[in-house]
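Q: Hi! First time doing this. I have a protein sequence and I read that you can turn it into a structure. Is that right? Here it is:
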Amino acid sequence: MTGRDAKPAFEAHSFLRAARQLGRPGWAAQCLHESLAVLRAVNARPDQVVTLSNVGLAYGRLAQYEESFRHYRQALQFAVGIGLRFEQARAHHGLGRCAAHEGDSEAAARHLQQESTIRQDLGVPAGSMD
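A: Yes, that's right. Below is the predicted 3D structure, encoded as structure tokens:
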């Protein structure tokens, strides 16, 4: 991810964090969906991946794990397709958390191990995925 690509990702994550602090993760999910439509229209591929993960995070905060899974899976598929390793790790992290909430400890462990392997390969410290 380049500096140019990181700015919208940081802004989207900051927006989600602010909406969460205001107690409005549903509003954040709605706004992120609108952002995703714009990013798709202009083919901003790295930002689409980041936004899909942020939508997954928003739905996870709403305990809507099926929607959260769906968006994290899309983010993972897209990140693999365009080679964004950090975003692959973020998607695995989110999928692992969702699986844990749903009681699927095997899937949770598998995704969190994949996230850890990628994070270690990239030299990214633990706790920096969400």
